[in-house]
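Before the break, one more example. Copy the sequence into your notebook; we will annotate it together after we see the structure.
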Amino acid sequence: MKRCRIALSVTGLVAGVAAAAAVAAPPSSLPHLERRGAATQLIVGDKPFLILGGETHNSSFSSADYMRPIWSKLAAMNLNTALVPVAWEHLEPQEGQYDFSTVDDLIKGARANKLRLVLLWFGSWKNTYSSYAPAWVKRDAARFPRVETSDGRGTERLSPFSSAVRDADARAFARLMRHLRAVDGQQQTVLLVQVENEVGVIPQSRDHSAVAEAAFAGPVPDRLMRALVERRPRLNPELRAAWEAAGGKTAGNWQQVFGDGSLTDHLFMSWYYATFVERVTAAGKAEYALPMFTNAALIRPNYEPGQYNSGGPLPQSMDLWKVGAPSLDFLSPDIYFDAFVSWAAAYARPDNPLFIPEARGGKGGAANALYAFGAHQALGFSPFGIDGVAGEGDRDGNGRSEGGLDDAIGNVYGQLSKLAPLILEKQAAGAIRGVVMEGEPQRAARVRLGDYIANMTRAPSADGSIDPASRVGALFLQTGPDEYLILGSGDSVLTFTSDRPGPPMVGIESIDEQMLQAGGPIAGRRLNGDENGQGQVLRLQAGDAARGVAYRVRLYRYR
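Here is what the structure looks like once it is written out:
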């Protein structure tokens, strides 16, 4: 019965498409990353694509009935892409027997609501644990060994040192990608695939199984050492400092090369997780070469390896991951902490475009999204639990309506969706900026706009009060030598100055409301007098996104 369902599911997806639909589109037309001017962009259908995403809760995907009303909610929040898991235990419930019905249901639901997908492969690990591995893997610890603690106890984590685990995971993932090629190679509903989820070990900083102990006592792989030597000037500062503090050796075991501190355990595990994930990723790409990435659970301040997911692709180990897993197109941070600016900067590297698959939503998330797209030319942004309601596992209920919609995200996505072609154009041209204020200690923020500087402070809300801890942000698109299109999230005031040669004073020539519509902006009011402080300030209001308002601002200089 199960096999009949699979056959019907595949037939249903392929029906109505030309016979060639079962064959992947030419590689040049697949979704891919491409450097365009100042930005690395996701190209879909030969055009740049900006991911306005949201990730569902972990278990939502497992029921088509549960997801049925969710799809329309996602569309109503102006998402263009949903991030949804695909679990190994669903895909291969019995060894060698594959069930693609859940995957097919996800593709059907997305297509019916004009959404794209980023699939999250919950294979060997999901947030350090192996809870999504099939029962036939979980029950056979002799064949599929676990990470062990220093006192010899097993854990709920499959070992990254096991070739049996790696090869079984890679086979299942390859079958998933082969299936995607068959049912989605032409329509390309699926844009990206995440390989595993928030890997690493806790509560100890490394695996203490016999095979892991032997690897730790053995030499650092020569391939890694050669790469670190070649990349030395560009290495993460923390990684380079540990290496050089231990003498900068080019050979030796892990503690001889990197020292006997806890960071060495993290680096050791990072290498073996990376090389495991590489084999899985490469197997999948051999079937269907979509862009692929993996994500990192970040570190709380002053936490040591083992208190966080030791071995994940964190900033201090990204260079090891780049060497160990070259088939991954980028590494992504899951940013739930307040220090959004510093975390985003750590992952926005010349060799690593920024994509944020998990983050807080609500008003703070809306401000962070503007910052990510403007300051770091992000490929996309995705709040977690987008299908939830406040109080039911949602990590940030701030801004949710009674219907469970994240209105703050939905409103800012509504603005961004109408400006996406211009945003992508300006990302490539290097003519886009973003700013965000985060946390009570930050009283002001500034960002350079060509010859000008925009200075942001918080402003009173509609009731006249100022929340000193509120997160407010803005996105700036330069549309002329002295002209900017500006949209914001939260209540703030912008003034403008300059430190470049020329007349020292900056004035606001004009501020025109732009009512963002699907067919293009419609001019609203020209703001002057009391509305712009007699030509001195631009006020961004929390209700602007809901109204679909942006501002076209023209500046000038004088003595």
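The mean pLDDT is 92. The longest strand covers residues 116-126. Try to locate both features in your own notes.
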